[in-house]
């Protein structure tokens, strides 16, 4: 990609209005890139600002489209949002109702609107959420969220246009047990319980690092939250919260994706801002596959040390397990490992759709309905195609690919970068939902590609 193309507009560099890339594979990615705050924390931290009486300041905010969606939703609800570099200031002094049509127009394809419910019920006594989007990686229902909100005293009305909620008697603390440690439902409880009247006890909660960072933010705001060793979270409701000042946790999903890109392309990438502690499970697998890494104070260097990559058996799981968002780029590296690898997806029932394009590119991957890991998961008896068997090593060849979802799309990009010949990847705007300035990063790392259109 030449310099003129790159400087076209900043939106283009971010990848927001880019439709397609033509990628010529076979070049190892080599260089240094920087991580910003995690998509799956920053967007929730922005919503938390709604709970305060005073402004909040969030640092290390990435330029991704999910942040833009949440910003738009906050603004139509009266929150004044300003950014200076990667610092965002959010002033909730004038929170107000938004019209259903503007909420629908701003929600885009994000699932974050559901997390506005608790804070808006506290602030305004009502909330509306449109039909939710998000990546198409399974049914992605919101039943846990609605049940949680009902437990707090919300009245939920399903309308043809979306869901309207009211809280005629205010919200009160509740005893909740999640059927599964859902990240979003845990955040729903946190964002609702901190200002509800009385005590909340949440058992079977998710405790991902992004959730612990959200708890740290809420604590800065004045919330009383205790996390027990058995994944029970206890929250004592308070009447008022103040704004926070916080630097967001780095994006470990993005870091893992670039680490896999280094491995699959035979490259060497220093991921600035990545930290060991939140990635230990990933690092163990990376080492087993044959990848090398070096932990520095300011980031982690990932590289392919030469020789054959080794097959592994991996099961995705809730924290501290292997994240479901890490498996897609890893699968590309496993296609190049010598032997049979297995990936058992236990978080989402339908997250192997992306492998079809890899098979078209020459990968040998079979998807099975059986649980092929060491334990039976909740999808095993329900005929979901949720275990992948990957036989390698193969050489991938270029293909025309339409990106299906965020992580699958990134894995397609990595596959194209390793492939012989040219690939045309369209619908790449989806990647900008969660990978900050990925086009610039590809350029910095020496990828050979053109932005089409
Ligand atoms: C979050 O999604 C992340 N998204 C996902 O990241 C991530 O893969 C996921 O957590 C798991 O870590 C954001 O943070 C915005 P869940 P979330 O509720 O909260 C089922 C990415 O690529 N479930 O933990 O929506 C659900 O279907 C993405 O960055 C219900 O059945 O995930 C799934 O099988 C994609 N009913 C499981 O729970 C509900 O009401 C876990 O989902 C809610 C969830």
Automatic annotation (TrEMBL):
Q: Name one GO cellular component term.
A: cytoplasm
Positions carrying 2-(S-cysteinyl)pyruvic acid O-phosphothioketal are: 135
Instruction: State if Cell cycle is listed as a keyword.
Output: yes
State the EC number(s): 2.5.1.7
Chief location bin: cytoplasm
What Gene3D superfamilies does the database record attribute to this sequence? Answer: Enolpyruvate transferase domain (3.65.10.10)
| Active site as annotated | 135
Q: Provide the species name.
A: Agrococcus jejuensis
User: Per its record, what are the GO molecular function terms?
Assistant: UDP-N-acetylglucosamine 1-carboxyvinyltransferase activity
Example of a GO biological process term = regulation of cell shape
Quote any Pfam family the record assigns. Answer: EPSP_synthase
Q: Which PANTHER family match?
A: UDP-N-ACETYLGLUCOSAMINE 1-CARBOXYVINYLTRANSFERASE
- Say which enzyme class the record assigns: transferase
State the taxonomy lineage: Bacteria, Bacillati, Actinomycetota, Actinomycetes, Micrococcales
Q: Which residues bind UDP-N-acetyl-alpha-D-glucosamine?
A: 111, 325, 347
Q: Which InterPro entries match?
A: Enolpyruvate_Tfrase_dom (IPR001986), Enolpyruvate_Tfrase_sf (IPR036968), MurA_subfamily (IPR050068), RNA3'P_cycl/enolpyr_Trfase_a/b (IPR013792), UDP_GlcNAc_COvinyl_MurA (IPR005750)
Instruction: Give the gene name.
Output: murA
Protein known as: UDP-N-acetylglucosamine 1-carboxyvinyltransferase
Say which family it is in.
Belongs to the EPSP synthase family. MurA subfamily.
């Amino acid at each position: 990609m030449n310099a003129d193309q790159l400087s076209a507009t900043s939106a283009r560099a971010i990848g927001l209005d880019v439709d397609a890339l033509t990628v010529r594979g076979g070049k190892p990615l080599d260089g240094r890139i920087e991580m910003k705050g995690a998509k799956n924390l920053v967007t929730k931290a922005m919503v938390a600002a709604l709970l305060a009486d005073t402004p909040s300041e969030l640092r290390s905010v990435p330029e991704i489209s999910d942040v833009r969606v949440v910003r738009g939703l906050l603004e139509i609800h009266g929150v004044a949002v300003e950014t200076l570099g990667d610092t965002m200031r959010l002033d909730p002094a004038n929170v107000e109702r938004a019209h259903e049509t503007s909420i629908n127009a701003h929600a885009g394809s994000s699932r974050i609107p559901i997390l506005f419910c608790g804070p808006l019920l506290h602030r305004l006594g009502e909330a509306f959420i449109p039909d939710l989007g998000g990546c198409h990686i399974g049914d992605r229902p919101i039943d846990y969220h609605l049940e949680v909100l009902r437990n707090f005293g919300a009245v939920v009305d399903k309308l043809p246009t979306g869901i309207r909620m009211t809280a005629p008697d205010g919200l009160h603390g509740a005893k909740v047990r999640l059927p599964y440690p859902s990240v979003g439902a845990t955040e729903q409880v946190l964002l609702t319980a901190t200002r509800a009247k009385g005590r909340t006890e949440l058992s079977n909660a998710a405790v991902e690092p992004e959730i612990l960072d959200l708890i740290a933010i809420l604590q800065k705001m004045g919330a009383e939250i205790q996390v027990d060793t058995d994944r029970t979270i206890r929250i004592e409701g308070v009447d008022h919260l103040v704004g926070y000042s916080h630097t967001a946790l780095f994006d470990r999903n993005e870091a893992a994706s670039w680490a896999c890109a280094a491995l699959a392309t035979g490259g060497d990438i220093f991921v600035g801002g990545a930290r060991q502690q939140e990635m230990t499970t990933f690092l163990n697998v990376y080492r087993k596959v044959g990848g090398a890494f070096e932990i520095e104070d300011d980031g982690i260097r990932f590289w392919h040390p030469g020789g054959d990559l080794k097959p592994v058996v991996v099961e995705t799981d809730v924290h501290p397990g292997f994240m479901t968002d890490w498996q897609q780029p890893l699968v590309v590296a496993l296609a190049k490992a010598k032997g049979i690898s297995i990936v058992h997806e236990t978080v989402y029932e339908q997250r192997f759709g992306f492998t079809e394009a890899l098979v078209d590119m020459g990968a040998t991957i079979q998807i099975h309905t059986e649980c092929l890991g060491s334990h039976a998961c909740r999808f095993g008896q329900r005929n979901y195609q949720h275990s992948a068997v990957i036989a390698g090593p193969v050489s991938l060849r270029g293909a025309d690919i339409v990106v299906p979802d965020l992580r699958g799309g990134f894995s397609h990009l990595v596959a194209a970068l390793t492939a012989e010949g040219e690939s045309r990847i369209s619908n790449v705007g989806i990647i900008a939902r969660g990978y900050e300035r990925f086009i610039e990063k590809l350029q910095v790392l020496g990828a050979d590609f053109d932005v089409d259109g």
